[in-house]
Amino acid sequence: MQKQEGPALSRAEGFTIIELIVVIAIIAILSAIVMANVLNYVKKTKITAIKAEMNVFFTYAIDYYNSNGNYNGLCNGETYNKIADKILENSGHILTCADTTGGTYGNPTSNGGWIACADYYPNVANLSLSAPVAFCVDSSGKKVEAIYQTFGSCGQYISGGNFTCP
Question: Of 59, 96, 113, 145, which sits most exposed with the smallest number of CB within 10 A?
Fold first, then answer.
């Protein structure tokens, strides 16, 4: 009896190493694009959350004035701390605030009002950043989003005696 041989194995039954490398490279490029978009959405979400908390602070300040007749102690207390904690959670930085009695920097406002400011760094872990942003609200109703080149960090701006948003 003679043994029958099956069909000869052809080279086309698997993928070559070059084909595998090309597929892996395409997947890596696509995942890099997706990751960049995801990080951009995370940044936008945090900025939106900070803006929302600054609006909450503005409303809190109006209620505080209506209840007390002045802004003395606005930058202290439980409600201020809750808002400041949420901003800290989203930005990694404190809510800087000054009122007629001092506030965060112990520097009382000279205009009888208040100012609150929150810093946002796009990547807190890496301080070689592009375009850190500050969000500012004050008792005149002014709400500003500014790049740092405008006035520096919130702490620098308020501690320098500036009691209205730029």
Answer: 59
Residue that is written with structure tokens 């009382």 in the block: 108
At 135, give phi and psi (nearest 5°): -115, 130
Tokens of 140: 């005149």
Token pair listed for 47: 């900025």
Which residues are within 8 A (CB) of 54 and not within 5 positions of it... i.e. 6 or more apart?
87, 116, 118, 135, 137, 143
Q: Give the integer Cα–Cα distance in Å for 7 and 102.
A: 90
User: Is the pTM of the predicted complex or chain greater than 0.85?
Assistant: no
Q: How many residues does the chain have?
A: 166
